Amino acid sequence: MSNHISIPLKDSYKLFNHGPVSIITSAHGDKRNIMAAAWTMPLDFSPAKVAVVIDKNTYTRELVNASGEFGLQFPMRKIAKLTLDVGDVSGRDTDKFSRFDIKTFSASKIAAPLIEDCIGWLECKVIKQGAEEMDLIVGEVVAAYADAEQFLNGRWHFSDDPQKRSIHYMAGGELYVTGEMFKTESGYSAE
Amino acid sequence: MSNHISIPLKDSYKLFNHGPVSIITSAHGDKRNIMAAAWTMPLDFSPAKVAVVIDKNTYTRELVNASGEFGLQFPMRKIAKLTLDVGDVSGRDTDKFSRFDIKTFSASKIAAPLIEDCIGWLECKVIKQGAEEMDLIVGEVVAAYADAEQFLNGRWHFSDDPQKRSIHYMAGGELYVTGEMFKTESGYSAE
Question: Taking CA atoms, what residue in B is nearest to A158?
């Protein structure tokens, strides 16, 4: 089980400022769903807001619209296969949590479950939806957690174990692991 | 000089689907500016759209509002220092292009210049601005280019030279280089 610590909402952008792929969880009544989403970004520091793209035709969007909330989490490489696999079936017909034997834990302020083996988790309430033609949703972050092993004193210290690192989705099943950290002050820049 | 090739607009999301940091260029009349932005994402495939966060108080926002267009590009690690340095002074007082001796080339459909040593470039026209309290801007992609050396047959083949890779911004001057590519079919997943 992931060892997650609560972090200040104003720091929640740090969970995905570097652009990793995400998993969005949703629930309404006795229905729940899970999908992968590469198109997410922080939108504001305080109050902390996020912008996510969720296609209007998806079951996730239906549950998010009905409940007004969603979970947003950033998977470790160890669940990369799961992250892509959940996109291959629709949650309308199947409870993906059972089908893929997904390990979850309870959120504190939303009904949607959160997924184990992520680097960070955000609980979000919908505050705005995009115009008719846009699949954009803006959420306010109401709770945030980070992997206690890798997020220390307000910053990341990513593990040398690549299975614990965050991942970035490209296209066609190709992903990239988050690479090495550097600072420009260290003279790495070719300036 | 970067060797850039034009790519289909529907493929333009591939330039930053993996969440690298960006540089936004803008121009209006004889004024021009450049800023770094971590909060950008694709918003749609066709017509290709992007969402970017540009603080309402910035000079860049002033030029983007006035001109209705902007350049969005994804720097290679070799200009990581420049990417962060341009945020330390305001373009209101200084022409940053001269001050930092920034190498540029002309865009085809917008007035803002594009920056050399990036992996990809998007020319964008503003189609929507966020509500009063939001710093969000939605742009339609009207031209797209990729680094000819690394983008082949519609997909990335990132160089082994880390100086040519894209970079991801975290906070406090810390960046991450885009790491190794993997596919979940390859058995990397711990499923």
Answer: B176
